[in-house]
Amino acid sequence: MIINKVALKNYQCYYGETEIVFGKDLNILLGANGEGKTKLFEAIMWVLDLLNKNQEHSVASEKAFDELEVGQSGTTSVALHVTREAGDRENYIIIKEKVFFKKPDGGIRYSDVEYKAVHETLAGERNFISDGKSTLNDLFPYEYRQYSNFEGEDALDIFDTSGGGDDSLVNLINLFSNAEKIEKYSKIFEEIYLKAKDAEEKASKSNSKIEREYKSLLSERDSKLIAIRQKRELQSETQKELTNLSKRISDFEKIVDNNEEFNTLNEMIKSREDKIKKQDLNISTEYVDFLFDRKWILMNFREVLEGFNKKYDALEKDRRDAERAHIQKQAAAKALVIASHDFTSLAVNVPDRATMQEMLDEEVCKVCSRRAEKGSEAYEFMKSKLEALVKDIEQTEEDIPELFKFNYLAELRNERVLFEERVTSDIDSTVDDIKRQFTLNTSAASEIKTLQDEIDDLVAKKSELVGGKGKSEDSYTSILADYMSKLKQRSAKEDYLKLYTSDIEKLKFDIDDLESKIERINALTGNEFLSLSKKILHSLSQTFEKVKNEEFDEILKDLENRSNKIFDEINVESFRGKIKIERYKLVSGRYSVGVEHVLNNGERFMDPNKSLKTSVNIAIIMAVSEMAQSKEGESFNSYPLIFDAPISSFDKDKSSQFLNMLKSIPGQKIIMLKDFVSKENGVVKVMEEFNSVSCDSSYLLSLKRPFNREDLTTMETQVRKL
Amino acid sequence: MMSTNNELLRKILKHPDLNGMFDMPKNIEKLTISEARVLDDPYVSASGEILYQLSQNKNVNSNSVYTTVQQLLKTKL
Amino acid sequence: MFGTKSPAYNKKYKETLFERFTIQGGSTEKKRSHGAFFETNYEFLLYGFFIGLYQNNRLELPVKSEQTSFRHEIENWGSKRHTDLRRDFKYVQFALFEAAFLNTDIDWLRVECGDVSIDSAVTKLITTVEEYANAGFEYILEKVEERTSTPDEMFFLRLITQAKK
């Protein structure tokens, strides 16, 4: 079957109608992460009915839903236009559809899923088929469909047998070879032999001579055979459980591996967030508060301060002057009064105090020019007058009324000095202080921006890590808890297996012993014909078993050779080792197929890097597909292989090589790639290297810009043919 | 790569395990199932018959094959 | 004595400026996010005063009926003992005084004599304060109304740094 076209309508980020046409060979869809690649892959899986329950989700385009009024409806559909073979004119269209409604509360409601099909005959008729699913199964049977798709690199790892083996490869091989048929034949051979054996024993049993002993031998042997069968069943059940467990455990281990990275990212994010908090504290923009607290409000106050000082000093001076003048005036007035009061007998010129003191000292009265010796009456008279005068003056001084009742200015003096001390240096440094604060703020802000950018990068990495596995962050914790219990379960089951094995060994031993006893009796008493025919059939059965195994080994060898050829083509330049595919016996006695990656000397290739591992898996898938093409005896249709980002760990050169190699392998291949795409300044571009890749059709898937990841209605993927 | 039923027949008969149990038919390289089932040797005819039965019917039942083969062998032994 | 006074201002500024830009009651966070950066009324009054002072603009207050006041004596201004985040800024009290003193015409000698009552002198000082503040508010209001967006802290800072004669 070939997919000629896929048509999407309102499927998630594919708003409206989108059509992509495919060629019969290699088809490449390019897209950066998160721009719609995987959604396209899912859309195809959806219409192929290959999504499991957890993956089913709301399929409607957010934008289309947003445009609805309450009560209106829209349709989401994915249609595959296919033909059985390339170039056929008889077309089939398989359509999977869901209708969505807008409820009164604004929520969404879906109708049930509808699978339809259209058959366009050669005559040009269009027949509508209501059961699209059966058409799908007819065109693309489930056994092939389930192995046709690979999501992500790890999904390719279906052949990992380290966990105890997986049947996927066996199933694939059975699909594409006649191994199953041979297996069936072998079973029949075995059954025929057993019937012959049975017949012989029945005949011997009826020989009365040894009846009882024979019968008891037979029944003992039979019950032991039953016991072995039971144990083998238990074994194979346990083996299956172990295989599942091991798979889960290795899944867990992948996550635990990632968990370290996850934890590291978390730590890095947290430390940056803490740094941001610290820097935030450094930023202060409370400028209004600073006006007061840091005295910025006094920035132009210098003039006022100096003006005030000048005025104050002037006032103080005036005050002192006024006071002095006042006292002088008053003193002078008072002196006049005294003088005129007591010295009427003396001359008009009233001697002042100094003069009087002089007169006493010289013992002469300068008024009347008479001598006045100490002790004389005249002297005493002068002395008393002087004393009286002094007393008067003092009194006068005391009597002078105060000019100033208050002295506010003096009160201010202290205040003013203190104030000036406190603010003067601040006034001058205000401008610098403001500048400094701004510088601090700016540098803290830019530091914060850098840290925030780093955090954004780390968060993106984190969600890639988590999102790539489709799990949420919270489930990690419960997954880890699960992991521990699974480890315990595994070791318990391994113990059981060992027990069963040893039981079976014992039983086998007993049975062999019994069988030889039975044979001896048969030889003595048995029916010759039955014995002979049993012998022949036994040989044939054993021989056929070996032939079967040899056939199978040949198929494996063929597969191994083809795989290695492709493997070599993918990895032309590097040291790569070889693929070994072998049959090995499981504990339960069944056979399974193991894939090993080995060095040329046969030793295991230790720790291959991811891209090498991926190429091992791809080589095998390609080889199986190639074998399927050459299967004889049936008109075999090839089926498309669909890959989502299978080679992301490859470097660019290897990618081009790989893609060119793919083209040479028969069958339709559809690949979604994130390689060859670059994002610059929000613009998505296809890299030049892609020009050297040859393919039937190629497209670029990118989101319409601008978009906002918080608002799904803006996330719209556009498809551009390249 | 995958053997046809005729090729399977030849592989069985030529297998070392059966060496000496019977005389190898002269035209073994070209021997077909239909030819083998009517030959005299029990090994050869039994193999032929079984494979013939298997190739005739996809859902063949071991009982019916057994019965047929036993009948055949009765005539050859 | 100066300290015991509480200056008055034009009622019309009460709503337009005071209530808008001061946080009186109500949560600090909420108010800050709405553009109120001055913690108290007097801070805003001081701000208006200094704007007027630096621009050397005075504007007479309207009649008493158009005036209002907040009861917060000058001597208590700048005391922040109850907050961790702010500092004391009592120095503003004296700065206010100095500015008022410088720009008020009072015959101090007569006051000291007792001819003129200290009361009336202080009243005159307060009037000076009020008048500078008044002019300041007028200017602030004008600038606020000119803006299309809510004034932020930078606005207030810039306003006063650019206030010159």
Which keywords apply here?
heterotrimer; A: 722 residues; alpha+beta; 7-stranded antiparallel β-sheet; 6-stranded mixed β-sheet; C: 165 residues; two-stranded antiparallel sheet; 2 strands
Task: Please explain how this structure is put together.
The complex is a heterotrimer of chains A (722), B (77) and C (165). Chain A contains 17 helices and 19 strands. Chain A has 722 residues and is of the alpha+beta class. In chain A, strands 1, 2, 4, 5, 6, 7 and 8 form a seven-stranded antiparallel β-sheet that branches. A six-stranded mixed β-sheet of chain A has the order 9-14-15-3-18-19, sandwiched between helices. Chain B has 77 residues and is mostly helical. Chain B contains four helices and no strands. Chain B has helices at 5-13, 33-36, 42-56, 62-76. Chain B is globular and about 30 Å long. The model of chain B has no long low-confidence stretch (mean pLDDT 88). Chain C is mostly helical and 165 residues long. Chain C has one domain (2-163). Helix content of chain C is 53%, strand content 4%. Chain C contains seven helices and two strands. In chain C, strands 1-2 form a two-stranded antiparallel ribbon. Chain C is globular. Chains in contact: A-B, A-C. Chains A and C meet through helix 9, helix 10 and helix 13 of A and helix 3, helix 4, helix 5 and helix 7 of C.
